[in-house]
Amino acid sequence: MRYIARKLGLFVLTLWAAITLNFLLPRLMPGSPTDAAIAKLSQNGPVTAATRAAIEAQLGVPGGNLWDQYVNYLHQVVTLDFGVSYTFYPQSVSELIGQAFPYTVLLVGLVTVVAFVLGTLIGVFAAWRRNTWADALPTLSGSFLSTFPYFWTALLLLFFLGYVLHWFPTSGAYGPTASPAFSWDFTVDALYHALLPALTILLTSLGGWILGMRNAMIGTLGDDYVTFAQANGLKGGTVAIKYAARNAILPNLTGFGLALGGVVGGSILVEQVFGYPGIGYLLFNSVIGQDYPLMQALFLMITVSVLVANFIVDILYGVLDPRTRR
């Protein structure tokens, strides 16, 4: 219990620091949403102070000194009320996030879990069959695929599988004639549109999981407890999974916690290339439009998800390796 209490205290402290930084960072950016709106209006003539005040009131720009804004922001965090989006006015921030969140979870979340499980299992098999073709093939393939950045792989797949072969749609989360609904037709259409960006994320992330698990497990195969288990006549699969892989998976588990926490942020480059309306696409537009309420809500979601994921991984560390409790 002391181990969990210590980790929980660190989690709360880190969460407060992240919330405070989330409040300060958008305000350190040059310019403001009001200036962007005035720049469009100034083409028709000078903008008066009354017009500027009206724009600020319409956008809901926070007033008062920095401390008053901070207190109001903390109240918004507790009540989950982040106001109206500047970029997508008059839609609320909660409404926009609610629309984009399912697409991101479907695309990035599911693919991240599949890539981690598949890459870890392949890494275990490659390490157990080291110095054979079963080791060389996934290792070389993983090294080759991991060298390509997300956006480059996305562009290649979009060009060949989308524009040349016409196997997959080139943009959007569903067809132009479909409307979001809990129906079989819409689900199939949404999955079909998500296949190409999902394949991009899977190909570019799978190699890292394979190489990480393979290299970590190579180091544990020479330990005494693995040799002792083999000398006792245990089956190879039992030794590989319950002895070698259990201890070697800890570094991969840390990376999985970070990746799982980052799921909420979406994959900005991939979503931009495919025009996929997820959280990453929303975040990009909020930064371009200097949309403080939307930016703060998205940054807060990403921060909290990463912290929660790391907290869960810390607890799992204590279960998988009791030595870490000390």
From TrEMBL:
Q: What processes does the entry annotate via GO biological process terms?
A: transmembrane transport
At the top level, the lineage of the source is: Bacteria
Read off the Gene3D superfamilies from this record: MetI-like
Location within or outside the cell: Cell membrane; Membrane
Provide this UniProt record's keywords sorted from A to Z: Membrane, Transmembrane, Transmembrane helix, Transport
Q: Which Pfam families match?
A: BPD_transp_1
Query: ABC transmembrane type-1 domain: which residues?
Result: 101-313
Q: Membrane topology per the record?
A: Multi-pass membrane protein
Q: What InterPro entries does its record include? A: MetI-like (IPR000515), MetI-like_sf (IPR035906)
Hey, what's the signal peptide range on this chain? none
Query: Per the record, GO CC terms?
Result: plasma membrane
Show the stretches that span the lipid bilayer.
100-128, 149-170, 190-211, 253-274, 294-320
The UniProt family comment states:
Belongs to the binding-protein-dependent transport system permease family.
PANTHER family according to UniProt = OLIGOPEPTIDE TRANSPORT SYSTEM PERMEASE PROTEIN
Protein name as annotated: Peptide ABC transporter permease
Protein's organism: Psychromicrobium lacuslunae
